[in-house]
């Protein structure tokens, strides 16, 4: 099967001008897709960044010519009206020549609470997503919308700079409920894979079953966080901006200072053990092999923390991407 390989530009780790260089380098190095997360706050406050991914994607669209561009992910539920996300996606579709993919998810408090929004439980968030995707799909399809929903309203809303191609909407899911919802309402699935068998059973199977029930085709992007480091000290350095991601309460905390304090109060080994750490490129390729060989993903997002990301992009392009494509074909 043909697999497309993505590079994650970590907006929680590097400033936008550096990430723009990484995106261009990823295209030059053979990646098929560049992804970026939509964060207002990062995971720690001392070695981090949090630029506006929508402005950044506009720059990437101008600076590249081949790679697809995907939010991984944005939450069109609180600080954005879903109509604004549809407008942003349509604009990027036009600026990129049809290369944009809209990845959505139900969000995290660290991006909503700082702006004064309450961050409710899953039941309300998935209900909001249901309404939001109706609006996004309708606007992207060229409809003029009058909606009086429980969470969102629209009055003669229409995109006057519509997409020139179809913008696929992919939904992030980590369990069967969100996976089933993705199969019912989205054109693709984004899921983080640590245990391939578990991901196939709990996420990918319910997604495919729900999509099949409505006669829809499926697209799967499998992701995995990996740390490339020659030692644990180097791994800790590489994870400086991401260490708060594994601290307790990350879905509820608004202040990255709190997550940094909690992470630094933990034993380093406890945080490092929550990541897949590899010592060389051969081990890195093996870490992603199950995603292309066992999971059978259509897209595989390579999310690697390292001390020298620019060199890592080039090395993965020359040594890892060919191996992953070979495994996908075997």
From TrEMBL:
Transmembrane segments: none annotated. Keywords: Oxidoreductase. It holds the Pfam family Bac_luciferase. SUPFAM superfamilies: Bacterial luciferase-like. The keyword Oxidoreductase applies. Residues 15-298 form the Luciferase-like domain. InterPro entries: F420-G6PD/mer (IPR050564), F420_G6P_DH-rel (IPR019945), Luciferase-like_dom (IPR011251), Luciferase-like_sf (IPR036661). The keyword Oxidoreductase applies. NCBIfam families: F420_G6P_family (TIGR03557). This is TIGR03557 family F420-dependent LLM class oxidoreductase.
